[in-house]
Design goal:
alpha+beta; Sulfite Oxidase, Chain A, domain 2; six-stranded mixed beta sheet; 11 strands; 16% helix; binds the ligand Nc1nc2c(c(=O)[nH]1)N[C@H]1C(S)=C(S)[C@@H](COP(=O)(O)O)O[C@H]1N2; binds molybdenum atom
């Protein structure tokens, strides 16, 4: 137990020296679970992901169809507003950037914001530039395994910091919706679930934009 504590401190000192520990954050080796409400059940027969709003064509992918989309892996640090940070996490899934580049989603010029819609009405909003950057992924896998139910199985948004990519805004981890079911592209911004509850709209971890 003490060994673990020293190990955690040493790892934290290391990422601090590397400039990867944002202000007010602490390194965790665990993976805490945080959400409002219950964990939904997944039914592969009825599950779909819908895309609508400022797009040329609306889309609806079944679970089987979603699994045929091009796949991307991502290594990044994730930062929760409740002050834990987890470093070098590995994710796999589908990149919105790739879907747009390959014409699988055709955005209208008016598409300025993305609303992620999750089970039970949970929402999270992001500017389109952030959602199309390399540090945002529609993730199906964490650490080589399908997501666990409490971390968002079968699909969630994830956003974090890619070491060295200092030009990309890094929002807190709540900007990734677990149990994702819809992508709504919008011309005007709307606050998501936590943003309506008083959390910051941009939520940049380096600027400590925790609350509004
Ligand atoms: N559907 C849904 N997604 C959600 C939330 C939620 O309440 N519902 N909470 C967010 C918050 S506040 C955080 S910090 C992260 C936590 O993800 P984790 O449980 O995998 O650590 O999920 C985000 N995504
Ligand atoms: Mo959170």
């Amino acid at each position: 137990m003490f060994e673990n504590m020293f190990r955690r401190r040493n790892l934290e000192e290391q990422v601090r020296k590397e400039g990867r520990l944002p202000p007010g954050q602490a390194l965790t080796q665990k993976f805490p679970v945080l959400h409002y409400g219950a964990v939904p059940r997944f039914n592969p027969a009825t599950w779909d992901l819908r895309v609508w709003g400022e797009v040329e064509e609306e889309k609806r992918w079944t679970w089987a169809e979603f699994n045929q989309l091009p796949r991307t892996s991502l290594l990044m640090d994730i930062h929760c507003v409740t002050r834990w940070s987890k470093f070098d996490t590995t994710w796999e899934g589908v990149s919105l950037r790739v879907l747009v580049d390959q014409g699988l989603i055709k955005l209208k010029p008016g598409a300025k914001y993305l609303m992620q819609h999750a089970e039970y009405g949970f929402t999270a909003n992001l500017p389109v530039e952030v959602a199309l950057a390399e540090n945002f992924l529609l993730a199906t896998h964490f650490d080589g395994q399908p997501l666990s139910p409490d971390h968002g199985y079968p699909l969630r948004g994830v956003v974090g910091y890619i070491p060295g990519s200092d030009d990309l805004p890094t929002p807190y981890f709540w900007k990734g919706a677990k149990w994702l079911r819809g992508l709504e592209f919008m011309s005007l911004d709307r606050p998501g679930f936590w943003e309506q509850a008083g959390y910051h709209n941009e939520a940049d971890v380096w600027k400590e934009e925790r609350f509004r």
